[in-house]
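Write out this protein's structure.
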Amino acid sequence: MSEDKPNKYLRIGYSYKKIVERPLMSGDKLTVIQDWRKEAIKDDHPDNKNILQEIPKYDGTIVHPNHLSYKREVGGFYNLYEPLPYKPEKGSCETILMFLNHIFQEQIELGLDYLKLLYEKPTQMQPVLCLISQLRKTGKTTFLDLLKAMYGRNMTINSTQDLQSRFNSDLAGKIVIGVEEVLFEKLEDTERIKHLSTSRSFKAEAKGKDREEVNFFAKFILLSNHEETFLKIQPGEDRFWVIKVKPFEKEIVNLLDQMIKEIPQFFNYLLSRDYSTENKTRMWFEFKDIETEALKKVISYNKNKLEIELINIFLTIMENFEEDNLDFQINDLVNLLSKSTHRADLTKIRKIVKEKWKLKPAKNTLTYKKYALLSDGSFTEMSEKGRYFSISKEWINENFDELMS
């Protein structure tokens, strides 16, 4: 039995199994080890009375990714991770390098580090790589296709719906999970991606089977045409590397085919190339290195809409009344939002002011300038007493710089 072409039957522990390839909606195939009765094996091979003795035996299954010294059997366990389709060879890989320069642009050295880590240190956590552009012919999908050619069945390409399904056994044991046409409109979807990107295990579930906890080391690569809305990324989040990809100036005929021919040479290039970065965080890269303008735009768009509406109202009042500071009580804000599409109750407003903005009210009841919204949409000024909060234009500039730019 060759190591890269295992027998289609196995005995795991005391149970017989058959290796089958299940077709997926994406056109890909998922290698599955199914229970198989030994009577069925005998029936299928009536001319071979020794068929059961010829079936390889293992104590159990394991997922052990190792691209440099792959083994099908690890300590008596059957390795579910597949050998790569290509091995390193000396030679030129200029087409792949040209393509990667196009994808990663000024961050090409980081991109090559990302791919070197994927090849040499497959269990190392890495950021969620997001390639976005509303334009066509950028090479986003070709990037996934290239990685799929490199890593074979150790990579899966899914849709948004696939990732939202509770039946997720096809994610188990994969080194790369590519997701096309991403548009996660719920915060819980983003949270799931975040959680999985830093998890060492997850609960795999297949139809008709109990959930099973398995090792998890996959890297997510998300593609989307929705440049600002594909994910609900919150301020302070450091797990996403968002790159806005530009279209090719000129279409390259048979680009993927040319690059596939260079994969052995590219693997050799990665092995011979030194890292341009050091392991500084759990995801290797420092956030300052992978933070991009594209990420800032996503975060800015996804900031609390009520929060942004309040800031815009404050700025309007400051401009109209030529003030650098503004005082208010929580009840005042309900009136100021009365004509807004983002009306909110006192609880939500109080949470923003006290918990998110961390503003403190005056220690005593004092007189302040209160601003109110009139029926015609204009603002009026009056005197009021209370334990008011204060906000300044300088504070807004420091905390909402992207809104002010």
